[in-house]
Amino acid sequence: MSLETLDLAAPRDRTIQPSETVLSRRIDLTTLRLFIAVCEEQNLTRAAQREGIAASAVSKRMNDFELAFGVTLFRRLSKGMALTPAGEALLHHARVTLLNVEKIAVELSEYSQGVRGHVRMLANLSAIVQFLPEDLSSFFGVHQLLRIDLQERPSGQVVRGIEEGAAEIGICSGEAETRSLEAFHYRYDNLVVVVRSDHPLAARETLSFADTLDVDHVGLHAASSIYLRTQYAATQAGKSMRLRINVPGFDAVSRMVQAGLGIGLIPDRAFEVIGAGLGLRAIRLRDDWARRELKIVVRDAAQLSSTGRLVLDHLRAAETA
Questions:
Q1: What tens digit of pLDDT does each residue of 48-93 get?
Q2: What distance in Å separates the CA atoms of residue 131 and residue 254, rounded to the nearest whole number?
Q3: Which of 25, 73, 136, 223 could form a disulfide with 154 if both were Cys (CB 3.0 to 4.6 A apart)?
């Protein structure tokens, strides 16, 4: 991008002072990018090498920025640099700003290629495997010139990503703390126990989660909402899970179960898509928490782009459709 500086919009309920206008013009994209590099590397020299610039130049930009605003961004330590509260605040705004600049470049490029709108989405694995393929297929059937960038993240990171402006729309577990975000119902699913047909539990029609705690489990990765919920349920039952292995997705859970490494918990529709073709059995889980809600989260529905609003409205209506 050839953009040199960025004027930060001031709140509408007060008059901008001349000194504030001058300071806002001192915030340039290069400095923000270098600041993020120093934060991520926790070392000025490594940040300079990563960005292909002299360490002295990075140091000067950071010092000039601190002097201009009268704040300290870093605590200089013997083994690196740590952020001050002012630095933490700047890091949040810097990431949002650079993401927005990237969106400008991407979307303008797409308009030149005939695309008429672009939306970034974050969603957990359950939504991506079970519901979004059909829901987005029907969306594109009506809106063929739009584009969606969909990334998979655990529910907690979906919420954080929407808060930080990494995407417009997110889909997460109903149990996730959504803080100040707007949340809308999306879908329900039900967890099932996946077993081989020759497993001792295979003859059961239903199970409580406590019934499974004496056999080996194949677990999802530690950040997943299913893993966290089952750990809590095991603690409530006064036992611990016999986890043999943790894997990244429902397909991996099903394959490990097929190979005899234990039993697994996945959503029912994910089993229909992935597990049923592997000769496995799905046993209904009786626990109340096995019925789960998925939520759509946005920062402010009224502030969504026109394309984002189309996606949100479509997803909210998808269950009844």
A1: 999 999 999 999 999 998 998 899 999 888 777 889 999 999 998 8
A2: 19
A3: 223
Radius of gyration of the chain from its Cα atoms, rounded to whole angstroms: 24
As averages over each run of 10 residues, the pLDDT of the chain (321 residues) reads 38 46 70 92 90 92 90 84 90 86 72 69 97 96 89 96 93 94 97 97 96 96 93 95 95 97 97 94 97 97 91 95 78
CA distance 54 to 149: 35
Would you give the DSSP letter of residue 10?
A: P
Please give the structure tokens belonging to residue 183: 């949340």
Cα separation, 115 vs 314, in Å, equals 19
Asked if 66 contacts 118 with a C-beta cutoff of 8 angstroms, the reply is no
Structure tokens at 210: 């406590």
**214-229 pLDDT, tens per residue?**
999 999 999 999 999 9
Distance in angstroms (rounded) separating the CA atoms of residues 36 and 226: 33
Inter-residue contact 299 to 181 (CB < 8 Å): yes
Residue whose pair of structure tokens reads 């400095």 in the numeric block = 31
Which of 73, 75, 77 lies closest to 27 in space, CA to CA?
Answer: 73
Beta bridge partners of 193: 265, 283
What is the rounded CA–CA span in Å between residue 248 and residue 233? Answer: 21
